[in-house]
Amino acid sequence: MKIAFITSEAYPFAKTGGLADVSNALPAALARRGHDVRIFMPRYYVVDRERFGLSIVGGPLGVPLGDGEKWAAILESRHIPGITAYFIEHDFYFGRDGLYDDGHAAYTDNAERFIFFCHGAMRALRDLGFAPDILHCNDWQTGLLPVYLKTLYGEDPFFKKSAAVMTVHNAGYQGVFPTELYHLTRLDWRHYNDGGLEFFNQMNFLKGGLLFADAVTTVSRKYAEELQTPEFGYDLADTFGRISGRLYGITNGVDYAKWNPETDTFLPARYSPDMMDGKRVCREELQRRMGLKIDPAAPLTGSISRVTHQKGMDVLADSLGALLADVNLQFVLLGQGEDWIFHKFEELRRLFPGRVGIFRGYDEPLSHLVEAGLDIYLMPSRYEPCGLNQMYSMKYGAIPVVRATGGLDDTVSEWDERSLSGNGFKFGDLTQKALYEKIRYVIRHFDNRRAWDSLRKNAMEFSRSWADAALEYERLYESLRTPVRHPVDTIYGFENL
Ligand code: ADP
Ligand code: GLC
Question: Where are the alpha helices (DSSP H) in 41-189?
């Protein structure tokens, strides 16, 4: 099959979170199954011409925007083996340091930037002569593509075989913008109502993607259910309910070629479930790097995370204060994010010298050392569509302690000492008290070395590969071949017109 994978970020070109990992590993896994997969993404400033061997392959490409037209170039890279990645280049929109924000606030022209990207991607497909069987879109930044496919390009013979899949990686971000900008999309006003892009008198890109895609997926089964409730789907919960018949949960995988302590070249020593000596070396190295006391007895806990409300890091900081006072544990944080939460962690570092280490910034090699060095990985997310770090942690023998939500609930199973089953620990309420109690409970288990070794072995044996996930996507794609073209106005409830 010909698959166009449209995304706003992909590792190693540009990454802010798990979407970039998925946008590299899933296309690669599909290509290994014999599909012709092409990635389309914006060419940000960080996508280095030399490093990724970019060359111009198309354009100047006229992209309609409002009443006018803007010009873009199409660049290509073969950096990811087996995959061609195309970049829509427009210096004014994408030649900036950040992807979506300047480090403090979202860019004020994000609507315009991603309308341009979506429409540019449609035009690039045609310009390159790549008529996809599947147009696989990801998150709000690409939400307009399914809409374009079924409306402006609904009669275009070039796209007559194309079906659209919309994957939701995070419904906390929906791309909601003022109605005044709608004209930039060039879409007809008859799609601006409750059955289309309109959302509380604003436009909502993700909503457009959900309603117009042939199938919608999200990155775990549990999150697919949660999205239909106001707590997780927010004001789109009803829309998720409406499309539940074509909403599927497909859990992300792990790229074990990159995340494997037996082969990981970022580590000072390697190890496997049967040869764990290397983990001790990594642990000491991590303690040294983070300015912690070299203490083999203290359980070493930590997180690698966007430090945001979603990740529950504020509650974690609050409960750590009492834990550090009561228990001999250590904590490391590798992250980027909100100042007010960092201040809490910095205060802990001041109060408990040699026991709290913070690295504020983005550091890929260090993230591997953290996974390898930790005994316990903390992930108290308020919501977590899938989460990758709990799965990376298991592979590295860092036991995950997670909130039972989304993909965390699907991938982590509670340790039971009697039956020696389970691969981590879960808790329900995200409160300071619940977290404090759960971590104390986990540390009691940590002190029982033999049981802990069994638990660690279970965790290291957990496996969810991209090959498994790719197979599930492939089945879904197959079911969408030769999509039935309903006139849009009759299927999605435009009765309010
Ligand atoms: P999300 O996409 O919600 O941020 P995921 O768990 O799906 O969460 O993926 C996060 C990815 O980003 C992981 O690969 C993780 O290792 C990486 N990551 C997050 N913060 C950092 C950081 N400060 N330095 C290096 N890698 C990071
Ligand atoms: C999002 C989610 C995360 C998921 C990732 C990749 O950023 O927050 O849970 O793993 O996308 O799908």
Answer: 91-94, 110-128, 144-150
| Ligand number, closest to the Cα atom of 252 | 2
Q: Is it true that domain 277-463 has CATH number 3.20.20.140?
A: no
**What per-residue confidence (pLDDT) applies to 5?**
99
Query: Residues of CATH 3.40.50.2000 domain(s) within the chain?
Result: 2-253+469-491, 277-463
Which tokens is 53 given? 């061997």
Structure confidence by residue, pLDDT tens digits, 125-165: 999 999 999 999 999 999 999 999 999 999 999 999 999 99
Please give the distance, rounded to the nearest whole angstrom, from the Cα atom of residue 312 to the centre of ligand 2. 15
Task: Give me ligand 2 centre to Cα 72, in Å.
Answer: 29
Mutational test site, ligand 1, from 367, 371, 384, max ligand atoms within 8 Å of CB: 367
Q: How would you classify the pairing of strands 68-77 and 55-65?
A: antiparallel
Distance 253 CA to ligand 2 centre (A): 11
Distance between alpha carbon 472 and the CA centroid of its chain, in Å? 18
Condensed to tens digits (0 to 9), the pLDDT of residues 200-258 reads 999 999 999 999 999 999 999 999 999 999 999 999 999 999 999 999 999 999 999 99
Write the pLDDT tens digit of every residue in 276-325: 999 999 999 999 999 999 999 999 999 999 999 999 999 999 999 999 99
- Protein residue with least CA distance to atom 12, ligand 1: 17
Check residue 349 and report its DSSP letter: H
Q: Tell me if 306 CB under 6 Å of ligand 1.
A: yes
CA atoms of 327 and 445, how far apart (whole Å): 13
Q: Are 214 and 236 in contact (CB under 8 A)?
A: no
Q: DSSP secondary structure string, 382-437?
A: S--SS-SHHHHHHHTT-EEEEES-HHHHHH--B-BTTTTB-SBEEES--SHHHHHH
Q: Tell which atom from ligand 1 comes closest to the C-alpha of 359.
A: 23
- Atom from ligand 2 closest to the CA of residue 406: 9
Mutate to test the pocket of ligand 2, among 24, 227, 252, 310 (most ligand atoms within 8 A of CB): 252
Average pLDDT over residues 167-171: 98
Number of Cα atoms under 13 Å in the Cβ half of residue 123 = 23
CB 303 within 8 A of CB 334: yes
Q: What is the pTM of this model?
A: 0.95
Both tokens assigned to 16: 């802010």
Report the alpha-carbon distance of residue 20 to residue 5 in Å, rounded.
12
CB of 175 within 6 A of ligand 1: the answer is no
Would you state the torsion angle of the CA atoms of residues 356, 362, 367, 370, taken in this order, to the nearest 10 degrees?
Answer: 0
Ligand 2 pocket member 379 (CB < 6 A): no
Which CATH number is 2-253+469-491's, of 1.25.40.890, 3.30.565.10, 3.40.50.2000, 1.10.472.10?
3.40.50.2000
